[in-house]
Amino acid sequence: MHSFQILSVALDGHGGRVFAGCLDNTIRVYDLRGGDAESDVYEGHTDSVTGLSISASGATLLSNAMDHTVRVWDIQPFVHGGKRLVAALRGATHNFEKNLLRVCWSADEQFCSAGSADRYVCVWSMEEVLREKGVGAGTSPLLYRLPGHSGSVNDVCFHPTEPVIASASSDRTVFMGELS
């Protein structure tokens, strides 16, 4: 059992590991093959982790936190140089409402997206992220900042085969938009 609240969860494609986004700013990894033992802790966020999403390939994890960053983590069993943090992206904000804002991958892993408290949907190109290695950068390779909602964007989801993204908001609406 963990000593802080768990705000988000993701299960890897093989069902062997559970990733838990926690109130203590960490991501805790539990290996189900060895019982429920905590096997790793990812540190880097400076506020509560509100959203997690594992890529279709199972190689990377997205996390959204109240520190106004979306982070990309390498979750493969063996990481070159031991560095799990791939990039820290800026653009998705949290505010006084403290909503649990979510993140997601596109099925082809070319894009990632996050909801934002400033009423926008944020979309990043992973090609640009990897090219610029956005760790600690003041600016991010934000590809789209999609408007339309009048409240916090709490969740986002890519269509599995089409260039379409859906977003859900505190304004009680769901929008769908096509990415060009």
UniProtKB/TrEMBL annotation:
Its EC number is 2.3.1.48. Signal peptide: none annotated. This is U5 snRNP-specific protein. It comes from Toxoplasma gondii VAND. One of its GO terms (cellular component) is catalytic step 2 spliceosome. Transmembrane segments: none annotated. It comes from the Eukaryota. The keyword Repeat applies. It is an enzyme of class 2 (transferase). WD repeats lie at residues 1-40, 42-76, 146-180. InterPro entries: U5_snRNP_Component, WD40/YVTN_repeat-like_dom_sf, WD40_repeat_dom_sf, WD40_rpt. Keywords: Acyltransferase, Repeat, Transferase, WD repeat. PROSITE patterns: WD_REPEATS_2, WD_REPEATS_REGION. Coiled coil: none annotated. GO terms for molecular function: protein-lysine-acetyltransferase activity; RNA binding.
